[in-house]
Structures are given as C-alpha cells and as structure tokens.
Amino acid sequence: MRTFDLSTTSLRDLNRALHAVEAGANDLDFEILNPRGAHAVAVGLDAPLRVVARGSVGYYCAGMNARATVIVHGSAGPGVAENIMSGEVIVKGDASQYAGATGRGGLLVIEGNASSRCGISMKGVDIVVRGRVGHMSAFMAQSGNLVICGDAGDALGDSIYEAKLFVRGAVKSLGADCIEKEMRPEHRATLAGLLARAGFDDVDPDEFRRFGSARKLYHFHIDNAETY
Amino acid sequence: MAPRTTPRPSATFDDYTLSEIRRAAATGVYDIRGAGAKRKLPHFDDLLFLGASISRYPLEGYREACGTDVTLGARHALKPLRLKIPITIAGMSFGSLSANAKEALGRGATIVGTSTTTGDGGMTPEERTASEILVCQYLPSRYGMNPSDLRKADAIEIVVGQGAKPGGGGMLLGQKITGRVAAMRDLPVGVDQRSAARHPDWTGPDDLEIKILELREITDWEKPIFVKVGASRPYYDVALAVKAGADVVVVDGMQGGTAATQEVFIEHVGIPTLAAVRQAAQALDDLGMRGIVQLIISGGVRSGADVAKALALGADAVSIGTAALVALGDNDPVYSADYAALGTAPGAYDDWHEGRDPAGVTTQDPILAARLDPVAGGRRLANFLKVMTLEAQTIARACGKSHVRHLEPEDLCALTIEAAAMARVPLAGTNWIPGSGR
User: Fold this and answer.
1) Which residue of B has its CA nearest to A99?
2) C-alpha span between B315 and B317 (Å, rounded)
3) Which candidate from A101, A142, A223 shows the least CB-CB separation from B186?
4) What's the rounded Cα separation, in Å, for the pair B61 and B393?
5) Are B187 and B194 in contact (CB under 8 A)?
6) A162–B187: do the CB atoms touch at under 8 Å?
7) C-alpha distance from A84 to closest chain B C-alpha (Å)
8) How far apart are CA B140 and CA B119, in angstroms?
9) How many Å lie between the alpha carbon of A205 and the closest alpha carbon of chain B?
10) Cα(B307)–Cα(B388) distance, rounded to whole angstroms?
C-alpha cells in the first residue's frame, strides 16, 4: 500500500500517482492521510484501485470515478463522485450537496446523510443513502436507482425521467411529474441487491416505497404549463 | 365614393408580428426555432477600417507577410492550442447536427489548422477522428459526459451560457432522438430532451474555481480550460471567469446560434456581439490579463471583415457556428423546392429542431443526412475559412499590420452613434466617442 500524507504532499502528486498506475500493476492500494477537506481528491481514476481517505474531503472527491473503489472515512464536500462512470465510492460520514450528480454508472454509498440535490441529473448511477437527503434530490434524474433509507426533502424527483427512487422514510414533497409507483417483485429484488451491495444488511426492503416518473412531461404541451 | 387614403400596415404590428399572434392563438405554444437573433442589431457592419495613408503606412498586399496564428491556453495548461488561423468552429451538438455534418466540420477545420468543438450530446468517434484539434464542451446537461472524452480532447470548454439564450436551457424535441442520440444521452428514444440552464454541481464563481481545479486534476493539467458565457454582463462575467482560473474566455453575442430555443428568448435576451467585445476586453485589461488569458468572440461572425473588427476590438480569436453550417450547404437555394414544401425558403429556414433539414445538416434522418458528403462539405468549409483569413489579412495589411492580432481600436471608426458608443471608437469623420467625455 502506498500512503500519501496531504499535510506534506501536494494534491497534484497524489492524483498524478493515482493516474499513473498501469494496467496489470500489482500495488493497487492507496491510503490518503490528512485530507483536511482538500478538493478534487482522487478524481478521474480509471483503474481498479482501492483508495482509502482517512478524514474528511472537500469538493468533488472521486469525481468521474471509473473502476476504482474510493472509501472516505469522514464526510465529503459538494459533488462527491460527480459523474461517476463505474466502480464504487463509499462515504462513511455525511455528504454535502450534489452527491453523485450526473453519475452514469457505478455505486455511491453514503452511510450518513446527504444534503440537497443528491443524485441530481443522475444518468445510470446507483446511490444508496443510509440517512436522509435534502431538497431537489434526483432533479431531472434520467436513469439509475436512488435508495434513501431515511427521509427525503422537498421536491423529490422533480422532472424525473426513468430513474427509480426508493424511500423508506417520509417524503416532504414530490416534484413535478414524480409520483408514487407500485413496488413490484422486480423492484424489491433490485432494492434488496442494492442494500446488500451497500452492506446495509439490517435494512428491510419491504419498508420502502417506490417513486418514479408519471411521464406526463416527456413531451412539451401547453396544457401542462402550470406544472412547470 | 369619397377618396380614401392608401391602406397602411402598422409598423408595430408588422406582417411577422401578426403571423406570430395568429400562430400562438392557434397552437397555444410559443415558437421554438434555431439560429440566432434575426432582427437588425448594431453589428460589425456599423464599423469601418481606417486604411493607411500618410499618418499610417500600409503593407504590400500579396507580398508582405501578415501572420494569422494564435496560441490559446498557455496560462496554466501544459499543452496549449496552437492554431494557424484565429477562427475556430463553435460548439454544436451531435443530435442537433447529423454525424456527417459533425465530421465535415472537423475535416474543414483540420485542413486549415484550426479547432472544432463538440456540443450537448458528447463526442462522437467520427468527430474525434476528423478533427485534429478538438475542444470538448462540458455542459450543464452533461449529456454523454465521459472523462475519457475529456482526456481525448485538446481543450475543455465549460459552457455557462450561449449568446442566443443567456440564462436559458435548451430543448431537443423527441422527433430528433434516434437510438444513437438517445443512448449517448442516457434517455429513451423519442423523448424531448431538456438541456439544463445551470450546471447541477456548482452554483457560483467560487464553485467554478474548484470545478476548474477538478477538471485540471483529472486531465493532469494538460488541457486548456475555456469558459464560455452568453453576452449579457460580459465585463463581470469575464472577470469572474478569469478569477476562477480560465485559460480562455469565450463570449457569445446574441446573434450566436442555437439548436432550438424560444423565439422570444433569442430575440429579447442578451446583448449584441458588438456591444460585448470591448467590455470583455476591458475586463482583461483591467485585470492585467491581456495576453495571458485569451478572448474568443462569437455570435454572427460572417466574414474576414468581422474577424478583423473583432480582433481590433480586443479579441484574440473568433468562433463561427451558423456561418460554418451555411458553408456546409445549409439553407442552400439548391433545395428551394424542399424548403418551400416546409413552408419556408432558403435563407430563412430555422426549424432545425424538427429534424427535416433538406440540406441534411441539422437532422438525424438518414436519407436527408446522406445528402451531405462530409468530404465535400469539409472542403467547402475549408475554402470559406481560407477566404475569411485572406480577407482579414488584406484589411490588416491595409492598416499597416504584419499580424492580424496587431489590429487595434484606433484602426476603426463607426457609422452610427450606437456602434460608436458600443465599440468605443469615434463616429466616422469626428473624434467623438459617445460616453467618453470627449
């Protein structure tokens, strides 16, 4: 395992080393000490690395991740795992705004709470949040799954396309074109699989409700103008 | 019968206005169209060059050298762009444009040694292959956004806004969403695709600074970072983009094109390109960043004269969009019958969102798209870019300049008070610059 102490090593040196790992390399484990809220930690990874940050990180940690597993033993600032393509990002603490924004694949697990706009414009990523999420989460979410084990804030799933939202707690309000939908066996299976991948074995899939698009706003029509 | 006055149409309720009222009343939907502002606006045509005579000394046309190269993005990037001409191809999306059109743009730009730009919808392999120098747009919608494409690009352009619609998003109607377009955008086939008005994961200039840091880290500080804004408050927007760390700032005036936006937005939001140039350049001057951060101006640039005027007013380069599409063959009279069948005419066709472009440029219909040969289209675009460059050089030589970037405001005067005030050059035949206090 290679260790980078960000109190003595620059962010550039860290990310350069992470990007430099070549196909077939044996040493795929990295540890980051003293991240101290640094921005852009472990961004743009594109190898099956395992990166563990010991402490809280700032904006865009693990942004655009592909193939790597990034674990944050602390909280994450805005935009953690934004536009994630594949691999896994696990935040042991809380996440700020825009967690998993526009993510196109992979898995983001937040063991604490997430702030507003969690999963905004998600495009295929799976996001599992142990706690609650803030307002406008899954706004314009296109595909993928957002699992919220706690409560959801205002305007959940506003202008949602084909993403699936699973909520165990209360939903303060639903956004435009987002409705509660039937929880069929295939949805329960998907949810159970996501909870298992997140390691949330104590959470019962039967306690969730499913939300998704009413598909009334897929084509603009003037009679829907008051909905926008 | 008593004599009657000649029937007089209203200047306020002119034919177009009346037809739009009738259309809105019949359909209940506002008009959506492509292209940029169509009404008469103060523009580069309202400026004239002061060719050399005694007080200035001209260079010999066709004999003495006049350079045209420009380097973009040397502020921070390890690999700045080195272009042979100061004219680039603006971002236009695959989805809005056919794959053949995107390829043709790349071919044309490559022939003359300049760059082309992706758009909403991501980077296609054809586009990357055809374009020797390719700028990858990073857009609010993030359709097709892929970090591997950022690494394949030669520069990254963070699009904050477009001149046709500062503050607005877009709408690609479902009829243009084929399987390939839908797959690139992670949406179902045939569904209207909304392009967001704002980036989902940053909310202001301080966030933008951190976003730029992230993009630099992902691409190992190799790629120049452009920031593109629609012209509305160019002085402050340019200053904030520079503060956020941009290598290049792109300012797009309201004549800049769009794929599909509300007519009311195109014609009534933003400011003309001419009004934006000097304010944008002033911001660089005031920050002491002239020559460090480059300024690209776009929005209705059509000729070498426009290029020369934009450079004289402080731009380092210009971008063209609509003019490039026309060079490819869009709105060509050869398709007059097809345009008539659509209820329009060559030169006026702007319903690009409907996907029925007879020229095969703004469509996903395979039969129509096949009308555009990407090799021939690229050749036409290259010819056009060469002509624009020659025109700009001709003017620069006449003003005594050995490089087009040596053009300056003192080489210009204005035909109208409005243009003089916006461009901050004297009204022709006077020393008066409105608003200058002299």
Assistant:
1) B201
2) 5
3) A142
4) 9
5) no
6) yes
7) 9
8) 11
9) 27
10) 8
The whole-angstrom distance between B392's CA and the closest CA on chain A is 42
Amino acid in the structure at residue B65: A
B217 in A contact zone (CB under 8 Å): yes
Q: Which two tokens stand for residue B303?
A: 């000729």
What gap in Å lies between CA B32 and CA B241, rounded to an integer? 30
Alpha carbon distances (Å) from B230 to B24, B299, B428 = 27, 9, 30
Q: What is the pLDDT of residue A228?
A: 56
Q: What is the pLDDT of residue B95?
A: 83
Total length of chain A: 228
Q: Which residue of B has its CA nearest to A17?
A: B220
Paired tokens of B193:
């695709």
**Nearest CA to B112 among B430, B391, B389, B429?**
B389
Q: Please report the ipTM that was assigned to this predicted complex.
A: 0.95
pLDDT band at A225 (very low <50, low <70, confident <90, very high): low
pLDDT per residue as tens digits for the range A166-220: 999 999 999 999 999 999 999 999 999 999 999 999 999 999 999 999 998 777 6
The per-residue pLDDT for A223 is 64
Q: CB contact, 8 Å: B26 with chain A?
A: no
Contacts of B147 in chain A (CB under 8 A): 44, 46, 64, 66, 83, 85
The pTM of this model reads: 0.95
Handedness of CA B267, B268, B269, B275 (dihedral sign): positive
Average pLDDT on A88-100 reads 98
Tell me the residue type at B336.
S
> What does the pLDDT look like over B277-317, one tens digit per residue?
999 999 999 999 999 999 999 999 999 999 999 999 999 99
pLDDT of residue B403: 98
pLDDT tens sequence across B330-365: 999 999 999 999 999 999 999 998 889 999 999 999
- Please tell me the distance in Å from A13's CA to the nearest CA on chain B: 10
Contacts of B145 in chain A (CB under 8 A): 83, 102, 104
- Residues on chain B touching A219 (C-beta within 8 angstroms): 174, 191-192
Q: Nearest-CA residue of chain A relative to B31?
A: A222
In chain B, % of residues over pLDDT 70: 98
Tokens 């392009």 belong to: B195
Assess whether pLDDT exceeds 90 at residue B31. Answer: no
Residue with tokens 């001149």, as numbered in its chain: B163
Cβ distance B20 to B38 under 8 Å?
no
Q: Using CA atoms, how far apart are residues B244 and A102, in angstroms rounded to an integer?
A: 22
Residue B417 CA to residue B42 CA, distance in Å, equals: 10
**Dist. CA A77–CA A75, nearest whole Å:** 7
Place of tokens 């035949």: B429
B336 interfacial to chain A (CB closer than 8 Å): no
Q: Which of A19, A59, A97 sits opposite B210 (nearest CB)?
A: A59
User: What whole-number distance in Å separates Cα of residue A146 and Cα of residue A156?
Assistant: 11
Closest residue to A19, CB basis, from B150, B171, B220:
B220
Name B137's bridge partners. B157
Cα distance between residue A131 and residue B377, in whole Å: 56
Best residue in B156, B186, B212, B261 to probe A by mutation, most A CBs within 10 Å? B186
Q: What is the DSSP string of B281-302?
A: HHHHHHHT-BTTBEEEEESS--
Backbone torsions φ then ψ of A143, nearest 5 degrees = -160, 170
